[in-house]
Each structure stands twice: as structure tokens, then as C-alpha cells.
Amino acid sequence: MAAETAKTPRTERGRKTMRAILDAAAIEFGTNGFGDTSIVSITQRAKVALGSFYTYFDSKEEVFRALVQDMSAQVGKHAASAMSGADNALERERSALTAFLQFAREHKEIYRIIDEAEFADPESYRAH
Question: Is 3 within the bounds of a domain?
């Protein structure tokens, strides 16, 4: 997940709630785009109270930024894990690409989210 902040969950329950919000945000942003996604639609999909959203995020922009960072981190973890057993550079590259494609197949929303990040949050887009 994103870097530690004052709003980083300190309990397992908090981590599960934040994960539910990020997972719901991925579906909402991936389906509806940044402009047509609302905090209410995210909290309804996550099955959490509106106040729970604000426990972890201050705005739609902030959850979007956290989502881009989270997805980038997940892609990186999948690629690193896949490369760990490779014997040479070509195998590492092949393994990383295969891991990325598998991740993208399982998380089709990543394309729309990263594409929209270029305009909705250029800093996250560049970091990705």
C-alpha cells in the first residue's frame, strides 16, 4: 500500500477496511472513469460507511492517488516474485512481462485507471 501517513490503518480491521475501499475504488474508477465515480459509489461498493472513507482519505483525488500507487506496487511485487527464480536477464524480463500480463488479465481496470491518471493525477502517472 501507499507510504505510511497519519491515516495509515494501525489495526487489522482498519487495513481490511482500507483494502475494501481501494478494491471498490478500482472497480468504480475502472468502470466509470474518474469523472463519473463518486465517493458514495465507492463506499456503497465497499459496504462501508461514508465516515469510514474519510478516516483514510480526504477526497476522491486522494483515494485515486493511493489506488494508482497501490496498483503500481502490486505490479512490482508480481514482477519481482516472478523474476526471483530466473537464471539470466532474458528469463527475468520474460518472467516479469508474463507476471504483468497475468496481473493485467486479472485486473483489467488497471488500463483505464493508469490512462486516466495521466490527467487526473499526473504525478502518480509519472511515478507509475
Answer: no
Q: Give domain status of residue 46, yes or no.
A: yes
Residue with cell 483525488: 61
**pTM for this prediction:** 0.84
Structural domain contains residue 4: no
Q: How many CB atoms lie within 10 A of CB 54?
A: 13
Number of domains making up the chain: 1
The DSSP output letter for 85 is T
pLDDT digits (tens, 9 = 90+) for 31-67: 999 999 999 999 999 999 999 999 999 999 999 999 9
Q: Which residue has the cell 490527467?
A: 119
Count of beta carbons in the 10 Å neighbourhood of residue 43: 21
Over residues 74-84, the pLDDT tens digits come to 888 888 888 88
Where residue 100 sits, what CATH number does that domain have? 1.10.357.10
| Neighbouring C-beta atoms of residue 29, cutoff 10 Å | 26
Residue 14: count other Cβ atoms within 10 Å of its Cβ.
Answer: 15
CA distances from 46 to 17, 56, 75, 98 (A): 8, 13, 22, 30
